[in-house]
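Suppose a colleague, Dr. K., hands you the sequence of a protein chain of 257 amino acids and asks what its three-dimensional shape might be. Before reaching for any lab equipment, you can write down a predicted structure in token form. Begin with the sequence itself:
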Amino acid sequence: MMVGPVRPQFVLFGSSIVQYSFYDHGWAAVLSHLYARKADIVLRGYSGWNSRRAVQVLDKIFPKNATEQPSLVIVYFGGNDAVRPHPSGFGQHVPLQEYIENMRKIAIHLKSLSKKTRIIFLSAPPVNEAQILGNSVLLGKPLRTNESCRIYSEACLELCREMDIKAIDFWSAIQKRDDWRDVCLLDGIHLSAEGSKIVVKEILKVLKEAEWEPSLYYKSMPVEFEEDSPYDPLGPDGNATKNISRLPFPESGVQWD
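The predicted structure, expressed as tokens, is then:
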């Protein structure tokens, strides 16, 4: 049983970039802050997953007979698919053509959920090969390379153009900062707070520019229980109350758009 009133649901679906997105001022945490009293940010992140695993459980995560379907689904798979293949066939690697077809299957399924469900795909982000720790070498070669991420990123973007799906060039967006290797990634793979800021700004740009009805841009959406109340905080003169339902919490100078 869910709590009410029912709000639009924004579902974040992907691998560890999604699962960890509430950590350390992550991009899901920022979206939850910006969309407070407007939409519920629902996390469906699965660390280590690739697109092959995602396709296997689409019906469980996004059942077509659900009472309420999401208003927005943001999808990220690609970085794990792009790792170097192991001769055994085990592991995260998914060949490029299969990755493309898996992402196509995800898009088709999400589009079938409802007429109101909107979709944004995030392409594979860059990696800082020098920073990656742990199991980073396979058969004497790097397990993850920035070049492989670029190839999978471009394939995702091309599919989105073909299917008329909103997409964010994650690989390029992060690398627009000259110092991205030092400040945008925690471990060479996962996003720091600075990296998450970039993702949020890219998402908000898409939502602001999209000609979707109703708009899913946070400044355009209604606020839950926005009406004036005699129980609102008193104003300075003590003779009237002040409605703070849209008052932003201090952002430390961050301009999201």
